Amino acid sequence: AALLTLTRKRGAATYAQTLQNIPETQVTTLENGLRVASEESRQPTCTVGVWIAAGSRYEDTKNNGAGFFVEHLAFKGTKKRPGPAFEKEVESLGAHLNAYTSREQTAFYIKALSKDMPKVVELLADVVQNCALEDSQIEKERGVILQELKEMDSNLTDVAFDYLHATAFQGTSLAHTVEGTTENIKRLTRADLASYVDIHFKAPRMVLAAAGGISHKELVDVAKQHFSGVPFTYKEDAVPILPHCRFTGSEIRARDDGLPLAHIALAVEGPGWADPDNVVLNVANAIIGRYDRTFGGGKNQSSRLATLAAEHNLCHSFQTFNTSYSDTGLFGFHFVSDPLSIDDTMFCAQGEWMRLCTSTTESEVTRAKNYLRNAMVAQLDGTTQVCENIASHLLNYGRRIPLEEWDARISAVDAAMVREICSKYIYDKCPAIAAVGPIEQLLDYNRLRSAMYWVRL
């Protein structure tokens, strides 16, 4: 009954009211460097999680996959709570727990009733500080991960993006896959995993984030109680100094004519997280949009490239992306097409890039900005998205950037800015290309490189 009453009392709000009525994000740094951040709302549930600046970018060729392996073992029991006891305790709360590893971040989070926040924090602290890493569980999860790697090979979109990183950042840590190699997974030992945790799970590199019906003061008090044992390192040692992952214009082609469709990704070097150019590039990506044959609208879609794709049957789908890391990124597009449509799709896609650099219109920019605003407000749906947003902002920007500030940045973008910034990153740049499947029709690299500029009089 209480939940139904909360839903019924929820009134409609305008976009401006939504931006102004967002609860303040409160941040407290504990003595050991752990940052505790929360956003309180009138929700009966809360999401609490630990985000750590650790991922495949912090690995080398010998231990690549260690972070992903540790993630698999995180909820399999701790030194205080054996696996069955841990699972029973979580189930008694009716909680939902999850974890993920990316190239620069590792996360463990739990969604539960707000009243159970203290117990959730205790469980997370136990996972981060006392993961058992039992030999029996390691061998069991080794088999699970090896099976996952086989399944991932059948997801050609993921394969294409892994190849794109491998060629764009070849010879650097960003070229590593998150999951690691089959050889590494087979030979990683308990000592390797324990060493990874000991090196990277440091308090100054962690954010304990929470969103929902919780009190920040209570969260801080509980964090002091359970996270005080997380090792402290001096500020200059808190995050390892990573060498700049230099972008390389190059390509990887994995031709397999037995596959029905080709997956092709093309990207140039993009900016890091904190670079203000990101907002303009996101507007540019929104102008190009995305497409799938299952979408309605056909030839009447607002995206010019989507209209061409529908009208001329160019591809099955395409998407744009702007993937950022701490000091670099990948800005590009990915498409899936029939073998005989590759050249036409690539020609039209690169043509749209050139049009962004030379003739973007104000009407396109206005539409794209509205799309970004909608996506931005959608981040407020659910405590889990808000919690993740809080933590990632603190790790990537050093602070939580309010939606009002994001809105102001988006509003400041105009067509001239899009043309200028796109020219800076796209025009006459050497791209990285990854192609998988029946790709015989994909032109050679020099031809694709020559389409990165227009001869203008």
What does this structure look like?
One of its GO terms (molecular function) is metal ion binding. The protein is α+β, with helices and mostly antiparallel strands and 457 residues long. It folds into two domains: 24-228, Cytochrome Bc1 Complex, Chain A, domain 1 (2-Layer Sandwich), CATH 3.30.830.10; 250-451, Metalloenzyme, LuxS/M16 peptidase-like (Cytochrome Bc1 Complex, Chain A, domain 1). Helix content is 45%, strand content 17%. It has 19 helices and twelve strands. The protein has a six-stranded mixed beta sheet, with helices on both faces. Helix 14 packs across helix 18 (415-425). The longest helix has 18 residues, at 135-152. The chain is globular and about 65 Å long.
Question: What is this structure's SSE topology?
Answer:
Blueprint: H1 2-8, H2 15-20, E1 25-29, E2 35-40, E3 45-52, H3 66-73, H4 83-93, E4 96-101, E5 106-113, H5 117-130, H6 135-152, H7 156-168, H8 182-187, H9 190-200, E6 206-212, H10 216-227, H11 235-238, E7 251-255, E8 262-270, H12 277-288, E9 291-292, H13 304-312, E10 317-324, E11 329-337, H14 342-359, H15 362-378, H16 383-397, H17 403-411, H18 415-425, E12 432-437, H19 445-450
Parallel strand pairs: 2-6, 7-12
Antiparallel strand pairs: 1-2, 3-5, 3-6, 4-5, 8-11, 8-12, 9-10, 10-11
CATH topology term of the largest domain: Cytochrome Bc1 Complex, Chain A, domain 1
Proportion of residues in extended strands: 15-25%
Mean pLDDT: 91
Q: How many structural domains?
A: 2
CATH C-level class of the largest domain: Alpha Beta
Structural classification: alpha+beta
- What Rg is obtained from the alpha carbons, in whole angstroms? 23 Å
CATH architecture of the largest domain: 2-Layer Sandwich
Helical residues, percent = 40-55%
Oligomer designation: single chain
**What is the terminal-to-terminal distance?**
71 Å
Q: Could you give a short account of the major beta sheet? A: 6 strands, mixed
CATH superfamily of the largest domain: Metalloenzyme, LuxS/M16 peptidase-like
* Shape type: globular
Number of helices: 19
Spatial strand arrangement across the major sheet: 1-2-6-3-5-4
Unreliable stretches, pLDDT < 50, 5 or more residues? none
Keywords: Acetylation, Electron transport, Membrane, Mitochondrion, Mitochondrion inner membrane, Phosphoprotein, Respiratory chain, Transit peptide, Transport
InterPro entries: Metalloenz_LuxS/M16, MPP/UQCRC_Complex, Pept_M16_N, Peptidase_M16_C
Membrane topology: Peripheral membrane protein
Subcellular location: Mitochondrion inner membrane
